[in-house]
Fold this sequence. Notes:
alpha/beta, Rossmann fold, 2 domains, 6-stranded parallel beta sheet, 13 strands, 44% helix, globular
Amino acid sequence: MSEHARRPRLAVVIPTLGCGGAEKVTTDIVGVLRKDWDIRVFLTKAENDDGTYAPTVEAMGIPVVRLPSYRRFSTLRKTWPLRRAILEMAPDAVLSVLTATNAVVSFALRGTRFPIVLNEHNNLRVAFRERMKHPRIFSFLTGLAYRSRRTKASIVVSQAVVDMIREDYPKATADLVVVHNGLDVGILERAAKEPLDDFPVPAGTPTVVAVGRLQPVKNFPLLLRALAHGGELCRGAHLLLLGKGDQEGELRACADSLGISDRVHFLGFRKNPHAWVARADVFAMSSDSEGFPCALAEAMFTNGHCVSTDCPAGPSEIIEDGKSGLLVPVGDEKALAAALERMLSDGELRERCARNARAWAAENTIEHQARAYDAVLRAAAGLAPAAP
């Protein structure tokens, strides 16, 4: 095959393929892009990978390269192994996923010819403040990444995050392109209908479901308090909590102190959360911050009765308050309880939200997202647009 006839090569760099929204989105995206690109995925924190999505990616025939582990300054020390691996692959474009990775990839590939497309899923301010040991270093490197000549564009999951980048990095020269996370509605529909043999809530009992890592930023204690102190329906509702994380012990203790431990079901990480979400009466998200919450977007299709904090960033770009779901102020226990009570009890609201939520989901598909990624990557690599 001639050089001009070969398929373009794409290097995808991400910390892990463990449980998480960005990891799932990346898995979905490479699953579509592999039709037109030769892809290799590089994991910069393979030592933290629980293997959730890596087998899925490898089953597609996409190689997953796990970079070596280090005890101290692990992420930064991987710049040289990453540089060598990408030089060996010689990709036409590099897609860097998540905040710290964007800084590392730009630093690792300085002086090379490879065009870089950053992919930001986080609220950067929260990521630097709460998730990084060396926030000043990574903030500085992020600024360099956004004004590097090698960085051709950044695919950002929400307009709110774009606004943050422009405000915090006014010298950024990379094109900032908003691409909302898309839904594979076919897979979601099939997954939502899968049978459940261990549904723990008695028939006819009001049920609220929440999905996410058990971490402080998700503010699940707020949701527990709302269910404990809300109206009659809230005080009788059961909560299905799908996810795992360091805060599980604290959350169990919180539920016990509120006297609702018999109504809170810690179900851990589920490969198919959609069957649980579909069977609940309400999907709730209580986060203090997000980038673009995949679980909420998916629940718009599989559940349709969504209540969320109006946190930065993403929920207000998914939910139209009162029409396709309900938004409440961040950290407001009473407002969250009232919204849950209203969504559980108001039949007209439930019907309107379900109809409009599914209409939103139908316009935000994984195919639309993948086409947008493909267009940005091809432009960065200097390749002709894909055939329609």
